[in-house]
Amino acid sequence: MRAVRDFWEIPHTGSNGWINLMRFWREGRFSLLHKHMEDSFRRLGPIYRENLGSQSSVNIILPVDTGELFRSEGLYPRRMTLQPWATHRETRKHSKGVFLKNGAEWRSDRLLLNKEVMLSSAVRRFLPLLDDVAQDFCRSLRQRVEVGGAGETGQRSMTLDPSPDLFRFALEASCHVLYGERIGLFSSSPSEESERFIWAVERMLATTPPLLYLSPRLLLHLRAPLWTQHATAWDHIFTHAEARIQRGYQRLQTGASGGSEGRFQGVLGQLIDAGQLSLELIRANITELMAGGVDTTAVPLQFALFELARNPDVQERVRAQVLSSWQQASGNPQKALQGAPLLKGTVKETLRLYPVGITVQRYPVRDIVLQNYHVPAGTLVQVCLYPLGRSHEVFKSPQRFEPGRWATAEPGSGGGFLSLAFGFGSRQCVGRRIAENEMQLLLLHILRNFRLSVSSTEDLNTKFTLILQPESPPRITFTTLSH
């Protein structure tokens, strides 16, 4: 038995956090943080320490260490606080949703939210709404290709960057599930208000990483243009969500006398009916779900379409399963997804190669040993997902896009903790079920309607803006298939 080594012996990327932060800013390294992590593991081994500004963390990659971290997360797991977000809520006197809360208060709010967004009974309620939006999206895209595309009838083709449409799809789907209302984003002229919301979410995400490593006091004293941009973006997001919540609330009040019995009123309606969260906390959580539910599904969908397009044999395999399942399901979206596990595999495989959030963080509640180093309780420990998904030590042929690998119980070495894009345990992503089903249903209907292809199978360059995204969105050729 080897003696456990001291915390300070863990290899590190440089001991002075402020010098490291200045170097990150100067070299524009934030946008390539995922590559920096991959490079650091290559140089330093499966565990290293990183000091950046006021933050320091221990970074890990192997599932055996993730398991140890998970077992020490305690009853109230904590993630790294996104301080710019928290500072915005505090200065604007807004309540915080579960994303920014900790402790017993986090747990009680989270359990109430789980009933409406995570349990299988909740999924059954909102699945038809997601399916409606996914089918409408494909109808609208099909019409565009048939009218403006090239080629003979029944096999029209159009090459386009689908990212603006995917953002609109994600916002339309989120609004339908959260508020129970459609906002009509697939019309030829989508509303300015919605376009502004999408822009505000992108600004908010892009301005978060550079501000992350400063203390809240420093943030406010600096009054830096970056902080102003960040706070203004959040103000836009809150204004948009507030207007929708008000409208939804009024609709529910009038609907109470107008006999909309039995119809799903959206998560907002369910939470108001349950009467267990104050209206202020409902507002905080719905706003967080809105802000967190657009880019985080629209961007992985870009990557998924690209990978299916450049792997035609995989695409055909998934399509064959989709067509057979759709036929047997007679329009029931839940049955259709159950009969096409390769769709779930496609989403998992996409997120393995292109994780939206590139780390999962926890502060262990007790001292633990990782890679034979002592890690004290309360240390920020990060599982780095981008290098994990591409590790030859963990996955067989990690560079291959193979949705079928998830059909086996163990697609890689080291037991569980291989698919971590949504986190793990009681603090996993609260919007997970909405996102997974939204992505799978859109891919299902796209594969029913189109064959996908790309002119180049070169790897995509990626950048990190709090989420991982393509440096420039891939252009994809959609060719209609006869039904």
- Structural class determined from secondary elements: alpha+beta
Strand order of the largest sheet: 1-2-7-4
Give the termini separation.
64 Å
Q: Could you state the order of secondary-structure elements as H and E?
A: HHEEHHHHEHHHHHHHHHHEEEEHHEEEE
Main beta sheet: strand number and arrangement?
4 strands, mixed
Description:
With 483 residues, this protein is α+β, with helices and mostly antiparallel strands. It contains 18 helices and eleven strands. It has helices spanning 17-26, 33-44, 63-70, 83-91, 103-117, 120-148, 163-179, 192-211, 216-222, 225-258, 266-274, 279-292, 295-310, 312-329, 333-338, 341-353, 385-389, 432-449, and strands at residues 47-52, 55-60, 157-160, 359-362, 368-370, 373-375, 381-384, 450-453, 462-464, 468-470, 476-480. β9 (462-464) and β10 (468-470) form a beta hairpin. The longest helix has 34 residues, at 225-258. The radius of gyration is 23 Å and the shape is globular. The chain starts with 16 loop residues before the first helix and ends with a strand.
Give descriptors for this structure.
18 helices, four-stranded mixed β-sheet, 483 residues, 54% helix, alpha+beta, single chain, globular
Brief summary:
By secondary structure, the chain is an alpha+beta fold. Helix content is 54%, strand content 9%. α6 packs antiparallel against α7 and α16 packs across α18.
